[in-house]
């Protein structure tokens, strides 16, 4: 199974403090199992059960078949505690999961804040200041993997089910029965990192960027020549999140192809081209929003192919 120390993607950006919650957790299952064992994040349940001496090597002999009901037929909850520096009502926090395998309910201090349905997606859950408690380890997060309470979006792995080049799984989840049918499963757990991100009042978090590149010349039928092609337009969409009260400020973008100075231009939901740098003044509501800027890379600014 997974024996990793860290699995971290490029994080959501904010001017506030980012606190990773990786490390030692607990994994517990209520009656009839009535088990609580040490757990590790990033990691998975089978590895935690093996480390705790509950099962042997899951790949050896009949360990998988003889013990699979432990992880496939019972509810398991991963738990840890964390602290925050401020719980002001105007300040926001995002609880970010970079990879969870798979259908799970997330609770903070006993209150459900959302569900995870796809192990290949990043999930971020807004946590208001009123929901948090100030002080070290004053807050608790629970990630509960039920037997059939959350419908997953797709398979647990890209190749589960016994293709000729993949291991066969005898376990499955019934929680996707109403959408795609039972999903063949292997393990479950928080297989990538997670963190709490502070977003100060009046600011935003940049959750991700999506650049789209368009060639400005005629459709090419031969390799482009340096300095003699039509250049490119790059539309950069910024996906943003603001706490209660929203935010105002300037969104700027610059192309890494820059070889000289360029003009500016752009805007929220629209704008005109303007060289290698673009900016726009924004007023954003609380919650999720998008804004986009447009950059132009002229033939003089880039080489083809770009190096």
Give an overview in words.
By secondary structure, this protein is mainly beta. The chain has 3 helices and 17 strands. The chain has helices spanning 45-51, 63-67, 69-72; strands at residues 18-20, 23-29, 35-41, 76-84, 92-97, 104-108, 111-116, 123-128, 135-145, 171-173, 183-185, 194-199, 205-215, 232-242, 247-254, 277-284, 287-297.
What tags apply to this protein structure?
disordered N terminus; 307 residues; 6-stranded antiparallel β-sheet; single chain; 4-stranded antiparallel β-sheet; mainly beta; 3 helices; 5% helix
Summary of the model, kept short:
The chain has helices at 45-51, 63-67, 69-72, and strands at residues 18-20, 23-29, 35-41, 76-84, 92-97, 104-108, 111-116, 123-128, 135-145, 171-173, 183-185, 194-199, 205-215, 232-242, 247-254, 277-284, 287-297.
Q: How big a fraction of the residues is strand?
A: 35-45%
Helix/strand/pairing category: mainly beta
Q: What is the percent of helical residues?
A: under 10%
**Main pleated sheet:** 6 strands, antiparallel
Protein topology:
Elements: E1 18-20, E2 23-29, E3 35-41, H1 45-51, H2 63-67, H3 69-72, E4 76-84, E5 92-97, E6 104-108, E7 111-116, E8 123-128, E9 135-145, E10 171-173, E11 183-185, E12 194-199, E13 205-215, E14 232-242, E15 247-254, E16 277-284, E17 287-297
Antiparallel strand pairs: 1-12, 2-3, 2-4, 4-9, 5-8, 5-12, 6-7, 6-9, 10-11, 13-14, 14-17, 15-16
């Amino acid at each position: 199974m997974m024996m990793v120390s860290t699995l971290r993607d490029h994080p959501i950006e904010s001017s506030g403090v980012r606190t990773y919650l990786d490390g030692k957790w607990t994994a517990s299952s209520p009656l009839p199992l009535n088990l609580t064992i040490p757990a590790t994040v990033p990691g998975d349940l089978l590895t935690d059960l093996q480390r705790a001496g509950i099962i042997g090597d899951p790949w050896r002999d009949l360990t998988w078949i003889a013990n699979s009901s432990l992880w496939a037929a019972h509810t398991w909850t991963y738990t840890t505690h964390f602290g925050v520096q401020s719980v002001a009502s105007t300040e926001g926090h995002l609880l970010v999961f970079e990879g969870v395998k798979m259908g799970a309910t997330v609770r903070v201090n006993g209150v459900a804040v959302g569900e995870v349905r796809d192990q290949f997606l990043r999930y971020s859950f807004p946590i208001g200041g009123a929901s948090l408690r100030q002080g070290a380890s004053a807050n608790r997060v629970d990630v509960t993997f039920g037997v059939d309470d959350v419908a997953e979006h797709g398979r647990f792995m890209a190749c589960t089910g016994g293709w000729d080049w993949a291991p066969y799984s005898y376990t499955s989840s019934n929680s996707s029965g109403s959408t795609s049918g039972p999903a063949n499963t292997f393990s479950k757990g928080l297989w990538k990192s997670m963190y709490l991100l502070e977003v100060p009042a009046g600011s935003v978090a940049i959750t991700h960027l999506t650049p789209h590149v368009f060639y400005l010349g005629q459709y090419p039928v031969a390799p482009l020549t340096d300095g003699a092609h039509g250049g490119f337009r790059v539309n950069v969409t910024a996906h943003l999140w603001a706490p209660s009260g929203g935010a105002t400020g300037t969104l700027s973008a610059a192309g890494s192809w820059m070889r000289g100075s360029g003009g500016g231009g752009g805007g929220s939901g629209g704008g005109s081209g303007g060289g290698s740098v673009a900016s726009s003044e924004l007023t954003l509501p609380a919650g999720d929003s998008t804004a986009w800027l447009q950059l132009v890379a002229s033939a003089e600014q880039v080489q083809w192919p770009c190096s």
